[in-house]
Amino acid sequence: MESNQRFYMRRAAEERTAAHRAVTPQAREWHAKLAQDFAQRALENGALIVNV
Fold first, then answer.
1. I need a labelling partner for 44 at 20 to 30 A (CA). Which of 8, 12, 19, 36 fits?
2. What is the largest CA-CA distance in the chain?
3. According to the lineage, what is the superkingdom (predicted)?
4. d(CA 23, CA 39)
5. Measuring CA to CA, which residue among 38, 18, 39 is closest to residue 27?
6. Is the CB of residue 8 less than 8 Å from the CB of residue 34?
């Protein structure tokens, strides 16, 4: 079973990718916000986040 930390890290990465691929500014902003939210949750669960 996947840990919460790993799930949030995976979802943050998926949302960052979606933000980069988004066509409209609104979609880009929404996916970026979701990525940030998931990254924060990962941090709260003990993850070390490296932004590349």
1. 19
2. 36
3. Bacteria
4. 23
5. 18
6. no
Task: Tally Cβ neighbours within 10 Å of residue 5.
Answer: 16
- Ordered DSSP codes for 1-52: ---HHHHHHHHHHHHHHHHHH-SSHHHHHHHHHHHHHHHHHHHHTT------
Residue 25 CB: number of other CB atoms within 10 A?
A: 8
Which tokens hold the place of 18? 């979606």
Q: What is the pLDDT of residues 6-47, one digit of tens each?
A: 999 999 999 999 999 999 999 999 999 999 999 999 999 876
